[in-house]
Design goal:
Layout lengths: L14 H10 L4 H10 L6 H8 L7 H11 L3 H5 L6
């Protein structure tokens, strides 16, 4: 497993949870990208990596697709109602 080279950014709230849930499901980035493509979300590996690293913005369409694919709520991805 590769370690992140850059510090986490501040351009989205969901990146850390997307990566966390994806890994818990033993899903590779490639698999997630394929499922996003099926839902009409055009994202490449670099875009997903930047999303997970919180260094790229996330559209509402991407947010909904990610919640459906990962089988978690949009609220969960946004960190709403999660105790820290």
């Amino acid at each position: 497993m590769r370690l992140r080279k850059q510090a986490l950014g501040s351009r989205n709230l969901i990146g850390v949870r997307v990566e966390e849930v994806r890994k818990k499901k033993n899903m590779k980035q490639k698999e997630l990208l394929a499922q996003l493509q099926v839902r009409g979300v055009d994202m490449n590996a670099s875009g997903l990596s930047k999303l997970e690293g919180q260094i790229r913005y996330v559209t509402d369409i991407e947010l909904v697709a990610l919640s459906e694919i990962l089988e978690v709520s949009v609220d969960y991805l946004l960190g709403i109602g999660i105790r820290k």
